[in-house]
Amino acid sequence: ALARRAEALGYDGITFAENKHDPFVLGALVAAHTQRVTIGTVVAIAFSRSPMSIAHTAWTLQQLSHGRFELGLGTSLKPLNEQQYSVPWSHPAARMREYVQSLRAIWDCWQNGTQLNYQGEHYAFSLMTANFDPGPSKYPGIPVYIAAMGPMMCRLVGECCDGILTHSFTTRRYMEETILPRIDAGVKLSGRARKDLAIAAGSWICTGATEEEVQQAREDVRRTMTQYAVVRTYKGVMDLHGWGETCLRLRELMLKRQWDKMPALITDEMLDTFSVSGTYDTIGPKLKERFGDYATRIPISLPSNSKHDDRLGALVEKLHKYA
């Protein structure tokens, strides 16, 4: 029902994260109950699955959706790989490069009958029997996006991916000084241009029909920021703005299990740097100012209550006009 509602409101796509539910199962459900919107994973955890397994799943979803599926992959973090998924962790950027390359080699085998012979340091595929070959598709060319934040992964986006899924724990300055230059370096190696890639807007979007809903969204983001700021992987973004010490203080509170004290360390200045806030009626120009010169897609959450869908639909229409 939510997917049908999003499609009716003019949304261009629907994405699912891999946390409490399997994103591919949800994607299959939505594929059967929508006609136009793209369906994507933001993101599926790559290293917990073989590229061959992901290749089959994506190929099937592409058929079910009549060419509307977009594969979004992420490495996740070392502790989650080792302790939650019980898989080894090593050289994430190098492994992700081979992951994407091997997916394309497998799909090329199915679509064009090419002999499967991908040999990498981390992945190798040389066997494809008829029983496992789904054959050519009416909808080849599945887009592959990856979640990227660090320099090596961002360059990989430009080298061999169709787009980047930018983390919400990102600021405009970090995009301009770290992410986009690395993407540009990668596209030079691939002979493409940045305009050939899909770039998801980084930062949280705090919006709603009323100021009260916006403020509630802001406080939710304030709490969420504390969860990311304690992770060393994301500290570089805070360091760029001179807020690295806050990460260390948050980590001290976390280790003491003083969760209730953590949100107070996220100031309004930090919150405004990592997010864009405003009601459905006012946030459109703010989104254009923050993301308009680089983002090709902006994630707007769909509330469970349809009471203000007319105003949300008007915002979607306004964003389309900006594009």
Broad structural category? alpha/beta
Radius of gyration computed on alpha carbons:
20 Å
Total count of helical runs of at least 4 residues: 13
Global geometry: globular
What gap, in angstroms, lies between the N and C termini? Answer: 27 Å
The biggest sheet, with number of strands, parallel, antiparallel or mixed sense and barrel status, is:
7 strands, parallel
* Helical content (DSSP H or I, runs of 4+): 40-55%
- Return the string of H and E elements: HEHEEHEHHEEEHEHEEHHHHEHH
How many DSSP E strands?
A: 11
Oligomeric state of the chains in view? single chain
Unreliable stretches covering 5 or more consecutive residues:
none
Strand content: 5-15%
Overall pLDDT confidence: 96
Which short descriptors sum up this protein?
globular; 323 residues; alpha/beta; single chain; seven-stranded parallel β-sheet
Write the layout of secondary structure elements.
Elements (H helix, E strand, L loop, with lengths): L1 H8 L3 E4 L6 H11 L4 E4 L2 E2 L5 H14 L4 E6 L3 H7 L7 H21 L5 E2 L4 E2 L18 E5 L2 H10 L2 E4 L5 H19 L7 E2 L4 E5 L2 H19 L5 H6 L3 H12 L12 H7 E5 L3 H9 L17 H14 L1
Parallel strand pairs: 1-2, 2-4, 3-4, 4-7, 7-8, 8-9, 10-11
Antiparallel strand pairs: 5-6
